[in-house]
Records
---
Amino acid sequence: MNSIASIAVPISLVVCGGIITYKFRALGTILRVLGYMLTSLSIPFSNLFSGLMMLTCIATGVTVAAYTSKYSILKYGSASLVLLSDLFLISMILVFTSQYLIELVTFWLLTELIGFFLIAYDYVVKGDTVALYAAVKYLLFSMIPTDIALFIILALTGFEEAFTIPVKELTPDLSNPVILAIVIVGFFSKAAIFPLHFWLPDAHSIAPAPASALLSGLMVKMGIYGFYLLSFYSIDKSLAVSLMLFSSFLTVVYGALQASLQHDIKRLLAYSTTSNTALITSTLALYILSTDRVFVEAAILYTIAHALYKATMFLDSGFIELIAHERDIRKLGFISRVSPIETIAVITTVLTILGMPPSTGFIAKVFLFTAISKYLDKSWIYLATLTIASIKVALSIVYNVVYLRSHYRENTKLEDVEAFRSNREILSLQHYVFTSSLSTYVVVAALLLIKYKGYPELELLKKMTAPLLTSTVLLIVLSVTIYLIIRSSGKGLHKNEV
Amino acid sequence: MAIENPIHGVMRFIQLFLLLSTITMTTYGVIFCDAVAIEGGFKAAIVLLAYDAITQSIGAVIVTALSVLVLLTLFYSTHLYYDIIEYTAIYSMICLLIFALYNSWKQNYYRRRTKVADFEAVTLFYVVISSAWVAIKEGIIWVITLTTVVILAYKVLLPKIKVLGVFGLLNPFIKFGGLSNILSILVKIYNTTSLKFSQGIKGFCKLVTPWSEVGKRIDYCLTNKSIALLKFMSRRFLEIENKFVERFHTISLAIERFQYIMEHTFVLLLFLASIFVLVAILMYKLIVSQ
């Protein structure tokens, strides 16, 4: 009863906040943020994957909440997007907290359905048929295959067991290779992995920016969660590992290469998502192969790092779209002159995913590579994964730099910086993006705190405590200095104006 | 004092932060023989390389990405050959070479030798040496000795013997003017020796062109030809790079077209499959169940 109340009260707060936002934006936003923060009280400490996924949802929810209300008013003239995105996030939180299969299936379908409306949002509001096309593509290539996979598991489990036995303790008979392949391909489609990856670039680039942040940062991770659940069931391990590794290796390289070649900022981010989720999938495949928990820890930490990174990047893309009315990198390159804070936020976010300490990206990368290198002498598969992961890191440098070209580029001519700067309403979005870029450090602090409380298995994180704390102290000093620089810069500008 | 653009200020501080983090983690790892901390230091060093690439051209970014790929693969392969000292030696030599190349290129790119760049280079060497030798029992002694040797070589010895030094040799291949410097030094050596030699055999030297003149001509031909060759190679390289990018875009477009066809085929198959299922259900209801 208590557990129901602990989740029902915050959800009610979020929903009420979403409704109030229509009339009183500030009050509504406060209620929503409070609701998301209260949800953290119901994080299940007994379950590492679900608990940390919930933590990520909350962190993303808090940072996206305020941005969404402002963005929705600026782009669509009303706060109608707020409630839809909140419902989407709540249903996703409920997916990760589901104890029984029936709950999981119900909330999974609900999330997918709201996701469909989020992608088709521009069609609903403005009649944009491209949005509808992307949404239908998502319906056909993401929703249907995943639902087939879920219903197969449900059918093999039995209706009564789906209500009474916890989802991890179920014993669906997935020994038939054809059925197993269908289920795996179903989850591939949700995680946007080859051969069902192509819906993602369209869907995530068409959806409104906050929705893309949630879709790309969190919803694709439901596919990863599906693979994680599969690891508990009796399956043909060699078939599952072969399928997962083959497809994910292809997608890692293909997604990263495509991202490096894109000119549209949102498509670039969307392709990088396919690459990242594929890398996480390959990590989970190694877990199925080795049964070493360190791979799950690496996968979940990488999931968190990617979700937070993608949330900030998509919020930034929304800002760029609103202020410049342009998404083509070749025609941009002046954002740093319009909004230096935005550029600083994006640079720090890019550095965090590349592994800057003490961010989640740093922990994730160390976990990932340590886990793989631990087994290098066992099989060539680990060596292949190490090579693919290294290629991924190398290519991620390329596409992130390409993305940063939208912020600054030498010889970019911009005569009318002041005209952009005068749009103060849009410029105010930069503060939300900056706050979002800092969320990764907050999550690291939370991880270090809860490590002692609920996750004794995070042994590697314990070993990393001393270096992490040192770099945290250094970062605090750095942040204070940055603040002083920005302040002194502001004063300087003010003096010049006078 | 107001700073003109806060981004530059922030970026300088991020660089400093990355440098300090790298040193702190690596030193912690060296003192306590902690592999995870060493790994953390190495990771931070990789981010430092990536950070340097942020403000550079795409070509430079690709070079950085390739360097990172080699470094990561080598570093984590050490786990496979942990006890083999030859591998560790090869690993450290390749990493040092990559960092040296990279640093040398960067200094030429910016046309100045900044103290931060020097500090960064020394930090990267320190990370490589630490990561290579910490696994050995006398890790700390090795790290201290090698770091001292490398820093001494980098700061004191190499600038004085440019022709023999790795860094001196690397410069001319990156900057065209550098080649003439080396050749000038070579010609100087040649001239000095030839003059000294010619003093002893006067009769013979009167008959032929003075050796110093030959040297100058060789120098003239070599320098100009080499510069022309390097410029030609550079231009060719740029053309090849452009062709490669164009080809890549064509492939990318072809893949997207294939993807488009695949989507439509998939929809058609889904449609056919659903009709088939419907027909099957109808058949079952009408024929089999009766």
---
Amino acid sequence: MNKDDYQKLVKKYEPKENKLENTIYAFLIGGLVGFIAEGLNVLLMNFFNLSRILASAWTCLIIILTASLFTAFGFFDNWMSKAKAGLLIPTTGFAHSVSSSALDYKKEGLITGLGSNFFKLAGSVILYGILSAFILVIVRVIIGV
Amino acid sequence: MSSKKFNNVFIKDNFSIVGPLEKNGLLKAYDLAMDNYYYGEKTFEQAEIKMQKIVLDNLLSKNKLSENKVDLLIGGDLINQISISNYNASKFRIPYLGVYSACATYVESLIIASSLISGKLAKNIITITSSHNLNAERQFRYPVEYGAIKKHTSTFTSTAATATLITSENTNIKIESATVGKPIDMGINDANNMGAIMAPAAAETLNTHLLEMKRSINYYDLIITGDLGKVGKEIFLELLSKEYNINLKKYMDAGCEIYTNSQETYAGASGPVALPLVLFDKILCCKKYKKILVIATGSLQSVQLANQKLGIPGIAHAISLEVL
């Protein structure tokens, strides 16, 4: 059997992911995270008299802290493997990726372990996040919005 | 020729320890079980070294063997530079060979042990292997706390260690012959579908074994493969009937015999220890089968080379056992 035929055979036995179910799940859970964050935002604006921009920054920090703590307490990884993109795409996913690397490598030393593996998963997010922001800014300057 | 017959090689005893998930799985005849993944150690790697030490200590004491009565220790595992086996071996005064064939490591070590005993170069050899789910996750995939999303084709590395005593003394389990497999790369690059990587190698090794030993498939009461899993098993069966015209009926895959359906292990168990666990705790202890062909399968992957988009080679080694 040649390689192409074999790849067709393998494809035949690959169980299909239910994309619709995954999408609905991610939409609902991701939406719930957004809903909680917005509620927090409104609370901060009203109780602490913060501007919307300042309140958003605080909300972001609180969500990151909560997700990291949940990772440290050891149940966020289970949540994430079930909720999939619903928790992976919001800031919660970023916070979780950093804190899980930190937890996992801390026993290999602060420099050789934790330090060098801290951004193991999140490094790409930062790099390509900055790069795409940079490109978008250039586009914005060119079209003069 | 890749197949060899052995004279006077027997399996005397085996000792196993299983992890917390395996303890609640389908197998119940294990010797010891761990309640958590740390097993009283600081890290998972150190826990796996301790698991190997425990099974080796117990196997020696159960058979009243002193270290100097053992001619050779042959071992391997999944972690970089087979470090678990190396570090464990340094705790004993036994000559040691480290071997690696990924999940086919156990049968590779049995073949080396049998060759040496059959050639009268050794009397007692212990083979040892282990895997630890969280170590394998760190080694090949993501940090363990990350809980990365899995595909349905991916297998779950079992947590366990086993040590087996091979000897020239007569016992009721004879190692009769073996076939050393050839690595096969069919261009599959997906490390989350190891069944598809290993199935062609398993089919090729089975066919070679039958041809070279001049046997029909009905000669064996049972054919057991290592860790093809639910997906790889189907590919293996179709490949055998299409390419080699072999219709396999008396067949089992060790990867499908360890966890219950509710344990969320995707396509089943994998790891070098999956096969010996099922072999000793399910097949050999029930004495239902007389002639057994054991085909261990391994996916010889490297994270770096898989990222460079190279196909992953699969390997399969077979060993024939007779229960007397």
